[in-house]
Amino acid sequence: MLNVNSRALSATRTQYGELRGAPLYMITLESATVVVQLINFGATITAIYAPDKTGLQKNVVAGFLNPIDYLHNPAYFGCTVGRYANRIAAGRITVEEREYQLPINNDGNHLHGGFEGFHTKIWQVTQCSQSHTEAGVIMEYISADGEEGYPGNLVTSVQYVLDDKNQLHIRYTAHTDKSTPVSLTNHSYFNLSGFERPLVTDHLLTINAQTYTEKSDRNIPTGNILPVAGTPLDFTKPARIGEHINELPADRGYDHNFVLQPDYMGKVAAAMLEDPYSGRILRVFTDQPGIQVYSANYWDGSITGQQGKPYLQHGAVALETQAFPDSPNHPHFPDTILSPGDIYRRHTIFAFDVQ
């Protein structure tokens, strides 16, 4: 278990640049044992320093050394993804009997909000706060009606809070003046060795999911929800990520949406990632209905990350808590349409520990 003390946590903000007349900030949230660094470009997590079983802190998420490099972030390192995370088939949605065409930016589909999604936006830092029990920051972005083809002016905020139990809370809220699909997530990639080991194939993964959404060869849900039992997707018990990863040649690894069990915000984590080498453990709790597991299948060593190591295929794993892909086109999937007068609220926790 990580040591926890009553020392006040801290939240600091430093301007590192300016873009389009708006300030760019680095925000650092710090507890006695965990440090989280963020920037307001894309409301992005740039580093999470967590201790191993000897107490040595390492950055366990993928990212760039220079924050300016996030202006071009095709791998979505650490960013807030929206207005709709994951894929929408052919970029087509129907909302209140009106059809909308969204940009096509991924193999004939709309992915992660389009070419100019939330990961490319400058978010306004509206609050930094600290106390003896938590340190946090709130960022806000207003997405205009018609931006990337979506209807409605959407006011979105994301709050990051590091607490004295070494838990990073991510809380999303949004409201709109026209009905619109909304699904927000964070796209951090984790290597709990701090990239001391270049691959996560020996990490153990557990997912509280008995089923997954079947997908087509274009990575779009077929509408079928199938059992994970007997497939390479069975992580109902701790299993090595690399054990069956080569049985998924079409994706070159994992890129699948798991249907979480209904007690996922209770005592059972939605997912747990363990690195036997360092002893670090990550538990993910969420009130989202799904979690997309993506094993960095197209990393090729061309990017050298913040840790000074090249990022290789299967060098990290993203655990993206979110709505199901293409939900607006599958009426039996959990509803993702946000209506005027309603508030979108979602909460995910990344909890860090050691064994």
Describe this structure in words.
The protein is mostly beta strands. Helix content is 0%, strand content 42%. It has a single domain, classed as Beta-galactosidase, Chain A, domain 5. It has strands at 10-19, 22-30, 35-39, 44-51, 57-59, 80-81, 87-88, 92-95, 98-101, 110-111, 124-130, 134-143, 154-163, 167-176, 180-181, 185-186, 189-190, 204-207, 211-215, 221-227, 239-240, 255-259, 271-274, 280-286, 290-294, 317-322, 337-338, 344-354. The strands form seven sheets. The protein has a nine-stranded antiparallel sheet with strand order 11-12-13-14-28-24-23-18-21, with no helix packed on it. A six-stranded antiparallel sheet has the order 17-26-25-22-19-20, with no helix packed on it. Strand 23 and strand 24 (280-286) form a beta hairpin. The model has no long low-confidence stretch (mean pLDDT 96).
The rounded distance between the terminal residues' Cα atoms is 6 Å
What integer value in Å does the Rg equal? 19 Å
Query: What would the principal axes of the Cα set say about the shape?
Result: globular
The strand order across the widest sheet is: 11-12-13-14-28-24-23-18-21
Number of helices, counting only DSSP H or I runs of 4 residues or more: 0
**Kindly state the mean pLDDT as a whole number?**
96
Helix coverage percent of residues? under 10%
Tell me what portion of residues adopts beta-strand conformation. Answer: 35-45%
Structural class: mainly beta
Low-confidence stretches: none
What's the CATH topology label? Beta-galactosidase, Chain A, domain 5
Oligomer: single chain
